[in-house]
């Protein structure tokens, strides 16, 4: 558990233009109705939850025609004041990349550009000094080597195998500098062995927790904000001493997203986590 759990800086994007207009993951059904106004209210609750926990939230202006831009985690990854921009796999999201890049540049981060498909914090999660990097569906394996050069952190490649858990942040949540929660069967046998070796005390999620995007959670080291439907996972986390805060992001789930997808962590310098 982390003692200094306040004062994180997050970047979020209001879902003003949120919709499900195309299907680039198995959760998306463009024929099913989406309530954008409800998505905005749910998103505002998530934002307020962070503020109530003592965190700071920066906002990037949403752009019309980019219905997935609400998923700020895919806008980049920021560590030690360095921001690595993204390159989306799917053309439908391509125009989000320069918008996020411009935001990081204006905010004064040192900019780096991706060399291959890279979907930011959707697939790249900092766990202590390790950079956990997913591949298999979106972020290219070749990009992992590039990441290591940019951030100078050991990069641990994790192979995702279930299309429902297409981004690392849908299958694994970093709880604090030393521990994670994950769904074992979302990973290849070799990656499961790596996770067991690195995190022998990890919280293992059930298939039901994962299906409600329980692992798409945001932890500040003490408080874990997660979908309120993930009740078993919340119980397991409380047993380990974490405080859990349940939020309802049902509309955003229709696009295959949850709390973490809506949240990008801005790490200014070495000291700020
Ligand atoms: N519809 C979006 C996509 O498929 C959802 C992105 C969710 N973001 C995340 N960090 N997992 O790209």
TrEMBL record:
GO terms for biological process: arginine metabolic process; citrulline metabolic process; positive regulation of nitric oxide biosynthetic process. The keyword Hydrolase applies. Keywords: Hydrolase. It holds the Pfam family DDAH_eukar. InterPro entries: DDAH-like. GO terms for molecular function: amino acid binding; dimethylargininase activity. The active site is at residues 167, 261. Belongs to the DDAH family. This is N-dimethylarginine dimethylaminohydrolase. The lineage of its organism: Bacteria, Bacillati, Actinomycetota, Actinomycetes, Micromonosporales.
């Amino acid at each position: 558990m982390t003692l200094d759990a306040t004062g994180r800086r997050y970047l979020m994007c209001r879902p003003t233009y949120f919709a499900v207009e195309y299907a680039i993951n198995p959760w998306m059904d463009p024929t099913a109705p989406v309530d954008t106004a409800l998505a905005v209210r749910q998103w505002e609750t998530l934002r307020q939850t962070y503020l109530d926990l003592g965190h700071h939230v920066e906002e990037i202006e949403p752009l019309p025609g980019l219905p997935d831009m609400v998923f700020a985690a895919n806008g980049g990854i920021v560590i030690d004041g360095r921001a690595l921009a993204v390159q989306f796999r799917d053309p439908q999201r391509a125009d989000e990349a320069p918008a996020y890049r411009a935001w990081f540049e204006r905010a004064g981060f040192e900019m780096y550009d991706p060399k291959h498909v890279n979907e930011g914090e959707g697939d790249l999660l900092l766990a202590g000094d390790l950079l956990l990097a997913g591949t298999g569906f979106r972020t290219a394996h070749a990009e992992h080597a590039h990441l290591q050069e940019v951030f100078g952190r050991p990069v641990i490649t994790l192979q995702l195998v279930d299309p429902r858990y297409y981004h690392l942040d849908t299958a694994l949540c970093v709880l604090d500098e030393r521990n994670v929660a994950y769904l074992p069967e979302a990973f290849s046998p070799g990656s499961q062995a790596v996770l067991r070796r690195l995190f022998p005390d990890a919280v293992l999620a059930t298939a039901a927790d994962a299906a409600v995007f329980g692992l798409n959670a945001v932890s500040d080291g003490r408080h874990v904000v997660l979908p309120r439907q993930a009740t078993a996972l919340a119980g397991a986390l409380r047993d380990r001493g974490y405080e859990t805060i349940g939020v309802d992001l049902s509309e955003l789930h229709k696009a295959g997203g949850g709390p973490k997808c809506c949240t990008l962590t801005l790490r200014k310098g070495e000291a700020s986590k």
